[in-house]
Amino acid sequence: MIELPTRWWSMHIKFFLFTVLSLGSLWAAPAQKTPEQKGPQDVEVLAENVTKQGTLIHATNNVVLYSPKYLITADEAYYDTASGDLELFGNITMLEGVSYASRTGHTKLNLNTNIGVSDPLFFFDDETNVWIKCENAILNPETYVTQKSIVSSCNTQDPDWKIAFTSGEFNKESKWLHLYNPVFYANDVPVFYLPYFAFSTDTTRRTGLLQPEFGFGSSEGFYYMQPIFIAPAVDYDVELRPQMRTNRGEGMHGTYRFVDSAYSNGEITTGYFNEHSDYAEDENLNNSSHYGLHVMYDRSKLLSTQYDNLEDGLWLDINYLNDIDYYNTMTNETTSYDKLVTSRFNYYIKQDQDYYGVYARYDIDTSKISNDTTLQELPTLHYHHFTSPLVLDNLLYSIDYKAKNYTRDEGITGFQNEVDVPLTLYFSLLADYLHVSISENIYASHIAYGNDDTKENEWRYWRNYHKISLYTELAKPYDNFYHTMYIGLDHIIPSAEDESGMYYDKDFPTLNTLAKSTSLTLKEFFYNEDAEKKVSHKLKQIYYDDYEYKYGDLENDLKYHVSDKISLGHNLHFSHEYHKISRNQISINYADDLYSTSLRYTYQDAVYKENTIYKVEEDAAVDKDYSYVTFYADTKYFTHYNLFGSVNYDVKDDEFKGWSLGFKKSLKCWDYSIQYRDTTTPKLTSVGTDSVNKQGIMFMFNLYPMGSVSYDFSRESEQKVTN
Fold first, then answer.
1. Which of 450, 456, 665, 722 is the most buried (most CB within 10 A)?
2. Which PANTHER family match (predicted)?
3. Calpha distance 278→432 (Å, rounded)
């Protein structure tokens, strides 16, 4: 076999330049084509010794041969200018284009047909670092056919992984490498054998197979998904993802992605999964098949390219599914925890002072057998006039109007009009140290009900409130730090309010009515002499005039940046009413080149009440207290290894809600990761929402540039119905 110097391919260009320059005074023999000759362009041969007899050129010592297709160096060469036959001996280095390089001891090649043989051969693809070493090879215009070969992308000396195969073919056009009877090695240890294996060395966007997914679950059986990528043009592509779960069923999902302008893009995803009848019966599933559709489209400058002084945008996010298991069967990793699946349509037009919007929202409640009673918002019309002066420069107003249509098949529907108009006067006192704003705010809403058998078929509401704000912003430099501070006092006074009819608050979005309140807020920041923020602090206290107990919880939020790597955070709520801490959260974060970790502890008491300027029930405390710890850490301390783990632990219930632990080893030419995970996923049964707890090991193995293979082994257990 060929002995190769370490990283010889990084030196070949320098070698060629040096050789050509050093041979400037040596004899060169050009080989011209005759008029009737077919094949390559002119060939030039340079060497220390060159002789020519008829059409045969013989060159020895530091031979350099140049043609439009090849750049070759060798110890000795024979070239027939009539037939195009070239035979090379000793230390042959051949560059083909800008991507491919090879090294061999003996080569026969016809430059007219680009057909030949090499024995032995070392071939290197500069774009992907893939190399092939073989005892002999057949050279064709588009392919290399090799015998008794080894392929890898690691170092040539003692590679971490390699594949030995009896025969193979590399297509230089499609960049696919086909291997027959391959044996996969980790170092020199054989791992497994396949009768055939193929992969692409092309890193460009193209049609082909993507990395597959493997897994095994105790109830679902063996899982396999093979994505297929189809890229017929630069502006769209298709990805198909057929899958099978031996104990559960089979399915297919697909995504169509497109770009239809310089300002827009979109994708359409759909799929279908069919359950085996025995699995659906054993798991008491509500549906024996799962299907859905997702359409996303994002477009800016829909009309603004045709009109000056106009900005607009369109956002479309449409989701449909027959139950939650459509998401949970898309891949082995996809899970959904939100019971509401939301579709949205948003379009807006904005000019200098005016904004117009059209929105629509449609919710699918996956916890329900039927979605007929779910309230939908189809559509909403929105107009907003941005803050503008009124008569005086410091007297400002704005207008916000919305019309909302609430609809559903069963239950009360409604059409709501609401308008909000604030009028604000700004001025400053005490040489601009004290800023004052006084505002009058008018809000009105009307709902006309439909599908209502009661006598109350409409609801009217309007309110007026005053708001007075006093605030100051101060900053002062010190010898070693810089301090900024904001102190603000906001006083809200509900003035007039009137309501008639009935508001169905259990069905419609919550109506926020204001409470008479005064809030004091302190915000401050400390910076060091390098202008780096070191401490941020916020303190807030609200006083309620209308409640039996006047004081809301005292909020204190503190964050200390110990260094550019360490930060500490503390958020505290103290209940004056119950003389105890109602909420306490502590967090520690650390990150550097080797370590990253985050630890957060949250305690919330049953007496905790959220501070808000809106009216709430006086006993609107949370149902129960909870105590929770979340932790994440990873390290790259060990060379080529990344260790990571996460924990979600319920301290009060003494229960792990979820956790994972694993590591990843990364080298130049390969990586692999192993992790243990504990997760819970929902499903829809004939009697309500259920959940499944999965505990298992995830293994992923990635060889560059072949791609990765993952294997997931999990054990599943049923959880109680959560209806």
1. 665
2. LPS-ASSEMBLY PROTEIN, LPS-ASSEMBLY PROTEIN LPTD
3. 77
Q: What string of H, E and C letters represents the secondary structure of 670-688?
A: EEEEEEEEEEEEEEEECCE
Angle (CA) 39-43-44 rounded to 5° is 175
For residue 395, give the H/E element and its range.
Answer: strand 392-407
For 549-678, where are the alpha helices, taking DSSP H only?
none
CB 141 within 8 A of CB 126: no
HSE-CB of 129 using CA atoms within 13 angstroms = 16
Q: Indicate the pairing of strand 434-450 with strand 458-477.
A: antiparallel
Provide the token pair at 633.
Answer: 């850490």
Nearest to 700 by CA among 689, 713, 683, 691: 713
**What phi and psi values does residue 20 have, to the nearest 5 degrees?**
-65, -45
Scan for tokens 């779910």, then name that residue. 374
Q: How far apart are CA 164 and CA 184, in angstroms?
A: 7
Check if the beta carbon of residue 85 is closer than 8 Å to that of residue 77.
Answer: no
Helix (H, G, I), strand (E, B) or coil at 266: strand
Name the one residue in this structure whose structure tokens are 């409604």. 414
Q: Please write the tens of the pLDDT for every residue from 609-664.
A: 888 887 776 555 555 788 888 988 988 888 878 888 888 888 887 777 777 888 88
The greatest distance separating any two alpha carbons of the chain, rounded to the nearest whole angstrom, comes to 115
- Tell me if 33 sits within 8 A of 68, measured CB to CB: no
Identify residue 193 by its one-letter amino acid code: Y
Residue 418 to residue 443: CA distance in whole angstroms:
7
The pair of structure tokens assigned to 47 is 């060497």
Compute the average pLDDT of residues 395-401: 96
Q: Could you tell me which residues come within 8 angstroms of residue 307 by beta carbon, excluding any fewer than 6 positions away?
A: none
Q: How confident is the model at residue 25 (pLDDT cuts 50, 70, 90)?
A: very low
First to last CA, the chain: 70
DSSP conformational letter for 326: H
Query: Collapsing DSSP states into helix, strand and coil, what is residue 284?
Result: coil
576 burial level (CB within 10 Å; 0-12, 13-18, 19+): middle
CA distances (Å), 573 to each of 126, 542, 580, in order? Answer: 61, 12, 9
- What are residue 443's phi and psi, to 5 degrees? -130, 135
